[in-house]
Amino acid sequence: MSEKKESKEEVVKEYSNGEITIVWRPAKCIHIGICVRLLPKVYNVTRRPWVSIKNATTEELIEQIDRCPSRALTYYWVDGRGKDKA
Question: Model-level pTM?
């Protein structure tokens, strides 16, 4: 996991499994909970860090991230292949 600041106010966190990196922008999250409902083994709000990316396949992660309505969760391919979603 890494943390970086995109602007003064926005915190951005990244979680990688070696294939993709999940990018989480907490300020964009509208707390619908689709991530937790679809992949509770990955997303657990009572755990720190709350994302355990290695608990799902890359395909499962991409399917869930593509359903995030606020785009608070995005991803990019570590090796640069495919469509960049971040």
Answer: 0.81
3-class DSSP state of 62: helix
| Cα 44 from Cα 51, distance rounded (Å) | 7
Residue 36 has which token pair?
């937790």
Measured distance CA(72)–CA(43) in Å, rounded: 13
C-beta of residue 28 within 8 angstroms of C-beta of residue 35: no
Distances, alpha carbon 44 to alpha carbons 6, 9, 17, 26, 29, in Å: 24, 24, 17, 14, 15
Whether 61 and 22 have beta carbons less than 8 Å apart is answered as yes
CA–CA dist 80, 60 (Å, integer): 19
Reported as a single tens digit per residue, the pLDDT across 22-39 is: 999 999 999 999 999 999
Q: Which two tokens stand for residue 34?
A: 């689709």
